[in-house]
Predict the 3D structure of the following.
Amino acid sequence: MFTKKPPLGWNSWNTFGNDISEELLMQTADAMVKKGLKDAGYEYVVIDDCWSLRERDEKGDIVTDPVKFPHGMKYLADYIHSKGLKFGMYSCAGVKTCAGYPSSYHNEFRDAKLFASFDVDFLKYDFCNVPQGSNGPLLYHTMGMALKESGRDILFSACNWGSDHVETWIRSCGAGMYRSTGDINDNFASVRDIALSQVDKLAYSGVGCYNDIDMLIVGMYNRGNVKNGGCTDVDYKTHFSVWCVFGSPLMIGCDVRNVNDVSLELMKNKDLLRINQDEECRTAFVCGDNGNKGLCFFRHLSDNEYALMFVNFADEEAEIKLDLTNIGLWDGCGHGLCCRDVFTNEKIVIERTKTEKLAAHDSKVFLCKTVSI
């Protein structure tokens, strides 16, 4: 499937891991509609690992776990589609999935047809238990071709964790998004490490194939499958802001049935989603650097707008300075930036330089236009 903007949705793994069921997925779809996430643009409801039995059937097909999903996957897909949402599933390029369930190694075309028969719209394709000596890129090329042969338009989400310089070849295998990092954990150190690891790879992301820097942890508060210390609301604000400005796919990882209002409103922030979903899909670049304690990013948007983000990745207060020369507005050019804070709506004009003093882990994001000065 070709997609013109980074995909948005929900995935079961971060909170639920193995503890998934038909009821959970249906309730999640209901909650996404009721809480306004569907209207905000989140459309995929994705089952991650652990959905099947441990062995294939006599025909060689993966068997849906009848206890977890008593009515089968087609029934679940129909329900999710009835809510105006799309349905996603999971497999893996190795001989077993990461949790040890049947995987698609040398079964790519069979499994793709099975997924298509379920009316799947999205496939997350992991990279565990790949036989030694296998050609990783070719495994993804094979599944890319299998999905096209399946008879259904399925978004191919390649999850090889950044192996084999994935950013340099993944577009060529038909993927619509690709994981470029290891797994996220629910703490700010994980957010920071992932973000900083991608600064020199942002330019590889673009229309049709997006750099996926892993699923969101917003709203988890040290609960669920990837809990590891938890985050504050400030941490989550910066996490979500960075993912939006970087143009990453946004796959919610918390329990949306019970998400609190602070996290819900953050994930529905219209300005941040407008930046993430900008139709030109241009990438951000660093325009201010305080030794990785704090960074400033700038991104061209459509309609003559720009996004500007100051981020303090440090565990103490830090200052980040922007000099407009670093975005191309040289001293004396007669132009500055008129900026609006996406959280407070405060407006400021930057004529030459701007220094933001931010608390630990905090950030500021502005929507900007050039202005004569």
